[in-house]
Amino acid sequence: MIEVQHLTKRYGRLTAVEDVSFRVERGEILGFLGPNGAGKTTTMRILTGYMPATDGKATVAGFDVFDQPIEAKRRTGYLPESPPLYPDMTVGEYLTFVAKVKGVASNERKSRISSVMERTRIADMAKRHCGKLSKGYKQRVGIAQALIHNPDVLILDEPTAGLDPKQIIETRQLIKELAGDHTIVLSTHILPEVSQTCQRVVIINKGKVVAVDTPDNLTSRLRGAETMYVQVDAGGASVAPVLAQVGGVTNVSPADANGATVGYEVESEHGHDVRRELARTVVSNGWGLLELRPMRVSLEDVFLSLTTEDAPANEPAPAPAEVVNE
Amino acid sequence: MSNILAIAHKELKSYFSSPIAYIVIGFFAFVYGYFYWVMLTYFVRASLQMGQMGGPQSMNINEQLIRPLLSNVTVVVLFVMPMITMRTYAEEKRSGTIELLLTSPLTDTQIILGKFLGALALYAVMLAVTLIHIGILFIYGSPEWKPLATAYLGLFLLGASFISLGLFISSLTKNQIVAGMVTFAVFLMFWVISWAGSVSSGGWVTDLTSYLSIIDHFDDFAKGVIDTKHLVYYISFICFGLYLTARSVDTERWRG
Fold it and tell me: What is the CATH number of the domain that holds A197?
């Protein structure tokens, strides 16, 4: 549905995006993740035809965004970082205007407008002026505007920025509902958002793609070995050597201590579940087992390790611009 | 074409849903009404005196009232026009709505022409207000309509030229005030550029500056003459302004 090949954008001497390539399949939600200023907005602006790239190629729904911009734009809905609303217009007038310029046929306009207003739950705001809406409603009108011509591709630049927690959940839910009918690219710098909504993630840093994968694969790739957190109340007895005896355990290191209660990080061989053995060992020694849980590597760790210069050396090298088709 | 009209309609509507249209039209109508009153009073007094002295011919209402009146209107247009054009692009850039327009299936030309027509429509409404005063002259006097029509054609072309240039200046900045001030300064220069010609010793400087002066071309229209030279001047001025706007929008896009 979307194909980006070796996209580069330079502003004078500054390179905002360098050699970015990725693909998005039909019906997929792709998360575009990166710190502020990584080039997310620039890439999205190129995809939507707002600005041309210095080099490279991008096609949306089979149309080149540089050579056939009108055709590509007809099939793209775009929500910029701040919703592009005219404060003097009412929501109804605004959506009518957008429907006109997006080329919705005049006999379909009414039904399209009421259907997107229902979908984004803004029907009761039709007579309000856009300038007087709350941030959450503005964002919804922004999404309604992007949907009005029923585009194949939806490009959403930080759709949840500035919303309250309830609105964030609603917006994510809406985005998930929209996938399937639409192919969605959304950018964010909020990590949980990606693992919750996206099927695939492109991590971008300083204008370059550092990883393309599913959120699950990204987290498991960083995790070389399994790590368990065990909290034990042993009344001062030495626990670490005993835990190290358990089959499969490769390393035990104390993590935190609170009086007699000590927490340990227990590393084990990959694919070797040592939880049962650990629990049995602790209990059979007459100690109190207070907590036992696997330590998941979060997307935060992946993100930091990929976007920080002095990343740990044992981390598997990310394959840039690798496309994983699952 | 429907795209152009959609933009033009949006522009015109936004003039009227903000105070701009009312302030501009109100200001214009007030100043115009004042000019009208002063000049009409003067005209009436002068023609009474003429009658008492038994002059050979009565005063011509077209030559002695309408022509100087409409020439003075051009000054008001100079003041009012920047208020109409300053927001066209600057406001869209500041509020980010330009992203909506540039990512919609529209060409730059459609957007520019839409904005141009929207501003032109407001200007037409503004000129329509003055027809009320002229109508009164038709009730109590018998002016000739033909020179009147050419004068209005001239006013219309003059305004359209200003709009095309104002559109270009607005496309250069995000700041409406900057756009307005620069537009006013540039308009004023086009107004008074012929002064440079009149103080110099003549020759090509005089010819050039008087050709460039936007107001010198209006004189013949006010007299009731449609000269191709002036038509060409205004139409090429308009096209050049729109062309510059197109270049500016395109350049902006590349620079990002």
Answer: 3.40.50.300
